[in-house]
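Chain and backbone:
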Amino acid sequence: MAMETYPIKDKEGDYPFALEIENVYVGPRAIGLGLDRESITQKLGTPTAEKNNSVLYVYRKEQRMTVEQIERMAKLWPTVKEHPFADVSSDVELVFIDGKTVAVTISKLETY
């Protein structure tokens, strides 16, 4: 069964996170400390969730494993060749105080 994929494009149609979330700080649409919510929303679009003083962007996607990963995983999980994909989760959480970003947490998790 294919994993549900959440939108991963920003308003300009680029992919700021997806599978390479380390690129979030690069380029004109970079995020960081001191930005207000409106600026963040303009750069990243509508958040997945909002609560009080924080917003969360959640991105989910399947990524095809490399040949090396498939070979390594097949030793423990022989049926991996039938569906050689990893579930990749990229999350960005921003915390605001007095309307400005004071913390940015970025995480990436690959599940095989």
